[in-house]
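Quick question: who can interpret this fold?

. . .
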Amino acid sequence: MISRRQIYTILITVAAALVFGRILAVNRTDTLLLQQYRFAQISKQLDEKEKRLRNKNTLSESEIKTALENTRKKLERDARLETPVFSANDRSRWDTIRVLVEPDMRVKDSQGHTVWYAIDKVQNEKNWDTIDMVKHTGHLYSSKPPLLPTVMAFPYYCLYQGSGQHWSLGKTPFLVVRIMLVLCNLIPLIICWILLAILIERFGTTDWGRVFTMTFVCFGTFISTFAVTLNNHLPAVFCITAALYCTVRLTQDDLPLTATKRRIGYYAAAGFFSACAAACELPALLFCVLIVALLLLGRKTCGMPCPDRIRTAGIRIAEVIAAFVGIAAVAGAFFVTNYAAHSTCLPAYSQKDWYIFEYERGGVARQSYWQNPSEIDKGEASRAMYVLHCTLGHHGLFSLTPVWILSFTGLFFWLCNGKYRFLAAMILSTSAAVFAFYMVQEQPNRNYGGMTSALRWIFWLMPLWCVPLVSAADWCSRTRLKRAAALLCLAVSVMSAAYPVWNPWTHPWLYNLVCSPVFTAVYQY
């Protein structure tokens, strides 16, 4: 009889192989037809160029060949549209990584000093332009917090220097991007799946419920969808999962008092990873605060019997200090890198005037995109319509991923269970506060996360919702009708996550359906 652990291993292996295959194939496939057309026109353009040169009767044969060769290289360079990066969002982070590692991409000031984090040069290169940037002190910078790109620059630096500077994002972008995505996305994602499998096994009660939940974790969320692009959501998911795992070990499991080093290690890890989540996703700061509160209140408050009631003050203080040291380390790195980039501790996106600027690209003066955003970036005019589409509409949390309905059902079960009540309250309060934060934004910020396959701002909450899902799945396992309904929800969720398989920076299938001519005609009729 196959064990659940073996089933989890199979599911994680298959999911990881699928993500790895997509990383190996990472490419802007939507530009291939245009690229093929451009390359097909090169021979015709060269023939026309040669005819014009020969008609001049002033050039030698060698000069004509040299001119044609130069023209051919230029035409091929202009015709090539393939790129392993998909959107302005991930290019913004890649640009920062490049300027930190590649000396040729760094900007110098009038005195010849390096202006660290300035992306003036790299954003001028073909296929490396971005709209997610700000301008101050006369230079362009990524609008993304610099801590994450700085951390990701370390593995790129090792690749760049270890290859004798032959492997670079400028010379070999496909090779380097794919290696970086494996290191920064796939490996953390596999660890995340393993930790969630342990938690699902810990909280589940039935085979069907546990396997159902783990299947959804591997194939039904948008986390794996975004594994082929550099983003802040997947690192945040990994950090949330690690912090949640440490918290559960401390508050729900019987770690003996004698395991002092393990307990202090879990406290330090919980503080560190919850702070890292906040560094990746600012609203996760609430989660960080609640995690610390949960740990300070202790196991008895969380509904579990506390056999270690008599605890030495020294051990308790050491645990609290460990948690705050983990938080302080991340907070320090966040503010130091932000100051190094912008000469202020405040993140770039808090400086609204930095988004209004003029810059140069390809020798042409341009205005910042955010002075006149287009399409979905203009924001939803109606707040009520925005709330509708973020929940049940074309970017809906429950319409695209109906399994989340079961997750919140599981949280209700946890609230009714004294053992998990505090944990459920923490997850619900965090979710409600984050969702409300984004719903009360003004129109320019009511843009569903831009051109994206789902409401990506709430991706980091997914691990918190996956664990209580197992309680609802256990409940569904009792009858055939409930199992059928749960499987239908799973099928829709997996389909939604698989729909943007080649590029996560595309509209959801529901959005394309609603905007299709057929649907519009039926609606008007």
In short: Confidence is low (pLDDT under 50) at residues 300-311.
